[in-house]
Amino acid sequence: MKRIQHFFNTLQTNWSEDPAARGAAKMTAGAILVAEGLFGVIRSGARRVSRRGRGNNKSVGGILGGIIGIVVGVVFIVVGSAMAPDELPDEVATQGVIADVESSRNSDGDRMYSPVYSFEVDGREYTFGSSMRSSSRPTIGQQVEIAYSASDPRNARRTDGFESKAHWMFIGSGIFVLLMSLVSLAISIALIVFGIILFKSGRADRKAAGETGSFFSDLMSIARRAQSGEIDIDQTAAGQSGSNQGDAPAAP
Q1: Domain residues for 200?
Q2: I need a labelling partner for 173 at 20 to 30 A (CA). Which of 128, 184, 207, 223 fits?
Q3: Residue 6 and residue 4: Cα distance in Å, rounded?
Q4: Is residue 78 part of a domain?
């Protein structure tokens, strides 16, 4: 991830021996890390300007993106759990067939199909429809696996094919999105914390050089400039691995 690369680039920086130059470089790098923690990956100013003519698509990242991802992951898990078929205490497995096909149209006017299943218990035929619809027409007569309640065969469901696994796809996708979003949120928080520490260190260096300013106004001003593309990140400590910020000697 680009944000993690920017974090490690900053750790490997050879800072200037001049307090004013070192402080300015630390404040800029710290503000960039804070901005990336808040808003997501920030591209360099040159690349940002070159892409303005291709559209204004913006992705949600940073803390807000992590929170939205967590909410989406939880929703997928809840929906998948709601889709899971009820377990039958007296469940019996048998074979059935696709006895009929029901057709309908979706919101776009395209024709959709859903199968109707049939199976026999003690010489009596039972049928039930599917809640799944597809643009592909099912094959009448195709054998399927059925589970039904011995006490009431009208309670039945299909146990093979996509229909029986659809809820696991939602649950699995939700767990994946949730875990990735939690990791992203943790990275965002770590970037913000480290960025503030680095920014404060830079302010201390600038103060030692006789320069002063408001902490939050300076921080947010540089962060906004980085987000808008006014600062070329590739020329900062966050954008260069092992770089010299100022006149610092190379590491031995």
Answers
A1: 2-52+185-245
A2: 128
A3: 5
A4: no
Provide the CA 27 distance to its chain's centre, in angstroms.
29
CA atoms within a 13 Å half-sphere pointing along the CA-CB vector of 208: 13
Task: Report d(CA 203, CA 20) in Å as an integer.
Answer: 9
What 8-state DSSP symbol labels residue 54? G
Which residue ranges in the chain fall short of pLDDT 70?
1, 42-60, 211-213, 242-252
| 115 is a domain residue | yes
Q: For residue 26, what pLDDT is reported?
A: 87
Tokens of 155: 């309670």
**Could you give phi then psi for residue 169, rounded to 5 degrees?**
-65, -40
Q: Distance between CA 235 and CA 113 in Å, rounded?
A: 58
Q: pTM of this prediction?
A: 0.69
Q: How far apart are CA 97 and CA 148, in angstroms?
A: 14
